[in-house]
Structure formats: C-alpha cells, structure tokens
C-alpha cells in the first residue's frame, strides 16, 4: 500500500525536526515546507535543508514571503532579541505581556495557510506542525484551542474540502510534551540533532547564542533528558 502524503512544517529547529521523524514513523511520505519570511538570519533555513536531506523527504519547498514589511517582532525588525542567563530570569523580566517580543504576528496562521495550499496540490489530508504548549514561549498561536479552530476552518476553506475529496487533519504531536520528552522521542527515532538550529540570534558562524529564550528552552530539554546538546554554542 502506498504511503499517504503529509505536509510537515519544517523550521530546522528541535521541535519541527522531531515532528518530521514522527510523521515518517507513522507511515507518511513527508513533504517539507519551510519559509524565508524576512527573519533576521538564514541559519535555520540551512538547518532545514540539512534535516530534509537527512530524513529523505519527498520534496522540500522553501516559500518566500516578507513579514518585515509589517515588523512588530524581534525576528522581523530592528529590535534586539532579549538575552537571559536563565529561564527564571526571563520570566522575571516580563514587561506586562505574557507574549514575548519574539512573537511574529499571525505567523502560524500564515504558515498553516501555505501548508493548506500545498496539501491540496499534492493530495495530502494531513499537516504536521511542531507547536508545543508545555515548554514554550507563550505564543497565542501554539495553543491547543487555536490548532483545533484552525482545523475546523481549514475544512471549510478548500475545493477539496467542499467537494469531499479531502478531510484535513492537523497533527500537533508535541503539543503536550515537555522539551525533555521531545528530545527523548527524537533520539528514539534516530534524529540527528547536530543538524538542527533553534537560536533566534546566532553569530556569523551560525553558533547559537545560548541566552535567547529558545536556546534556554532547548538546553533545558537536553539537560532534563540527560543528554548533551550536540550543537555548538558561542563561547563554549
């Protein structure tokens, strides 16, 4: 029996790389989708290319959009990425909003819309995304209720859905997992995390800063899983 196609949103980071391995393990043929969206560096895209090649996806598309025209985020405008010595310190420097400045307005909605279009063109009824609501930065578009609402909307939004040839399922297998659990699951599936990049603000050599929130969350996950993070960090 032929494997079913699935779209996998692939940033090149810890979570999306694990989700790609999960989709393959569940018997899907993955079609990876990444974005050049005006983010402050291209390191993650290079990581996504490495991961896609290593895991043998059917096709890897990098879509070009420019969210810098809107700004509003440290990732898409000239705003410094916050750095901290610990996650506790990051929490203590909250500015009154539970959503950090690294949130890109409506990014997941935009990305999922592209994934929905990609799915319809390749005949896929499944989209995999690496959102998590346990060890995460508090982004509103990573919550379970958001994912459930988007799935309902998506089934009203396409010709395939209206004609009954597609019943879209949005998979978020990490949504209730801690970073440590994600690391353990990826290692069980043979993921090579040395190919990945999670840092919001790497240096010119691509080395992770170790102090932005996503680096701290990643390091926490590896530490709690009892293994060493294989990527290189600045000053290490």
Features:
single chain; 236 residues; alpha/beta; 8 helices; 5 strands
Structural class: alpha/beta
Radius of gyration, taken over Cα atoms and rounded to an integer in Å: 17 Å
Mean pLDDT: 87
Largest sheet: 5 strands, parallel
Order of helices and strands: EHEHEHHEHHEHH
Strand order of the largest sheet: 3-2-1-4-5
The total beta strand count reads 5
Low-confidence stretches: 92-96
Query: How many DSSP H or I helices?
Result: 8
The percent range for helix content is 25-40%
- How many angstroms separate the termini? 48 Å
Shape: globular
Strand residues, percent: 5-15%
In a nutshell, what does this entry contain?
Its cofactor is Zn(2+). With 236 residues, the chain is α/β, with parallel strands linked by helices.
Report what the structure shows.
A five-stranded parallel β-sheet has the order 3-2-1-4-5, sandwiched between helices. 41% of the residues are buried. The chain contains eight helices and five strands. α1 packs across α7 (179-188) and α7 crosses α8. The protein has 236 residues and is of the alpha/beta class.
Produce the secondary structure layout:
Blueprint: E1 4-9, H1 14-25, E2 28-36, H2 43-55, E3 59-64, H3 87-92, H4 107-122, E4 126-128, H5 144-154, H6 159-163, E5 169-171, H7 179-188, H8 213-225
Parallel strand pairs: 1-2, 1-4, 2-3, 4-5
Helix pairs in contact: 1-7, 7-8
Cofactor: Zn(2+)
Function: Catalyzes the ATP-dependent conversion of 7-carboxy-7-deazaguanine (CDG) to 7-cyano-7-deazaguanine (preQ(0)).
Enzyme class: ligase
